[in-house]
Amino acid sequence: xxxxxxxxxxxxEEREKKGLLLRQVAAMLDIDTAxxxxxxxxxxxxxxxxxxxxxxxxxxxxxxxxxxxxxxKILYEIKxxxxxxxxxxxxxxxMKYNNKNNS
Amino acid sequence: xxxxxxxxxxxxEEREKKGLLLRQVAAMLDIDTAxxxxxxxxxxxxxxxxxxxxxxxxxxxxxxxxxxxxxxKILYEIKxxxxxxxxxxxxxxxMKYNNKNNS
DNA sequence: TTTATTTTGACAATAAGTGTCAAATATAAT
DNA sequence: ATTATATTTGACACTTATTGTCAAAATAAA
Lengths: 103, 103
Fold this sequence. Notes:
The structure is a homodimer. By secondary structure, chain A is mostly helical. Chain A has a single domain (7-102), classed as 434 Repressor (Amino-terminal Domain) (Orthogonal Bundle). Helix content of chain A is 70%, strand content 0%. Chain A has 6 helices and no strands. The termini of chain A are far apart. The model of chain A has no long low-confidence stretch (mean pLDDT 93). The A-B interface holds A 1, 3-4, 63, 66-68, 70-71, 73-75, 77-78, 81, 83-95, 97-98, 100-101 and B 1, 3-4, 63, 66-68, 70-71, 73-75, 77-78, 81, 83-95, 97-98, 100-101. Chain A binds a DNA duplex through helix 3.
């Protein structure tokens, strides 16, 4: 069974579907080709601004791509943590709790 | 209704319960008093190593304190994000999904 | 008021993130 | 096989965050 796609994999797939070159997309983002190459292979993380531009360039749903990007960022924080799963659940609880009492 | 406690609040409460001074606990942690003061007021974040030492010094359950610490770290990542809640849920999903396929 | 504790803010050192560039590698076309 | 184009890699530089020290200011306790 296949794992869920990384942001990089999504970006590469869509770029290739559109027949765009790294060079071309990198130019639109105003960064070096090397960085985009690294982003697509998950060697580096994109910034939020880059993600937004990429959604536009590749005609991906912006909200979906941001959620994808943020969730990856969250998982990165706890990737080596044994208690990561518990921490995630605790975070959700706190978020609920705090929302309830502010809104 | 009171919000859930921050790590800093927990640490301060427990330190005061034990009648320990910032100076004393900071010395045990081998950091300056100023930093511990800032940690307790959530002006700075403790490192994981410091959290572990603090659990021991203050006789708090280590696992609980780490979960508290990590969940705060996660929430910090998404604190200004409109899509934070969706991202958290997505992260949980991915975590489940990946666990299922590796273990 | 004196003494002890805590807080604040300026600063320094280090680590992490973000980018450029050029050379190496891989892919595609002649 | 050669050439041309695209991608990857790694060394380096620049910038921003993080983590700490120190000393002075503020607060609290004797």
